[in-house]
Design a protein that fits this description.
The chain has 223 residues and is mostly helical. Helices cover 71% and strands 0% of the residues. The chain has one domain.
């Protein structure tokens, strides 16, 4: 999981650089399609792209922590989580969907963290079925991809916020971006704490977790 720890360091550097850049009134570089947006242009398209990508990342990471936690839950708890995910999936507005995924992510990660901190996860992970072990492995792969993508999204979001700061007319448009940044930061933080802890236990239980990059394709992860 070295690639995940690297993502945390990079994300932290980006957050610090973004704050300093905003204070100086700098605009930063945009990462929309790999090219910066033209200065003074309408940022609506960039905001929409960011929100869509953030919603997709929110879903990927939420389903990942859900799959990890579900491996240790009762059938009733699993069904409840499936129902919550299904309800969120019905939402059509990307910003609302990202917000709901963020809420579920936080509560689910907290439940998983409690299992990890209590020692219950370590006690039980070696006794899980082969299917549940694979479930955890796939979830760790997907979270690794999501945490690396969060680095680029954080940089893009900070650039959009800085650009909007130079044009008051753009401030209302940037609200969904500002609302999405906290989850991106939490994903980066959790990749270096919760996920690393789970990965160590997974390795001890002979669960394979291949290395990934931000462009890796997520694997099927259901529970």
């Amino acid at each position: 999981m070295k690639i995940i720890r690297k993502a945390v360091v990079v994300a932290a550097c980006l957050m610090a650089a973004g704050a300093a850049n905003a204070q100086l009134g700098g605009l930063g570089s945009m990462l929309s399609g790999g090219k910066p947006s033209a200065s003074g242009g309408d940022i609506s398209a960039d905001v929409n792209t960011f929100v869509s990508k953030s919603a997709a990342l929110s879903e990927l990471t939420t389903r990942s922590v859900s799959a990890i936690t579900a491996a240790f839950q009762s059938d009733q708890e699993i069904e409840s989580q499936r129902s919550k995910l299904a309800d969120i999936n019905k939402i059509t507005d990307p910003a609302e969907k990202a917000a709901k995924y963020a809420e579920l992510y936080k509560s689910t990660q907290a439940a998983g963290q409690a299992l990890l901190d209590s020692g219950e996860m370590e006690k039980r992970i070696g006794t899980l079925s082969a299917d549940k072990k694979k479930q955890i492995g796939n979830a760790l792969v997907n979270f690794g991809i999501g945490s690396l993508q969060a680095v680029d999204l954080t940089r893009t979001g900070q650039s959009l916020v800085a650009k909007a700061g130079a044009n008051p007319m753009d401030l209302p448009k940037i609200v969904p971006v500002k609302n999405s940044l906290p989850l991106l930061g939490k994903v980066a933080s959790d990749s270096g704490s919760f996920i690393v802890g789970v990965a160590k236990l997974a390795k001890g239980a002979d669960i394979s977790v291949p290395k990934v990059t931000a462009s890796s394709t997520p694997v099927k992860s259901e529970f």
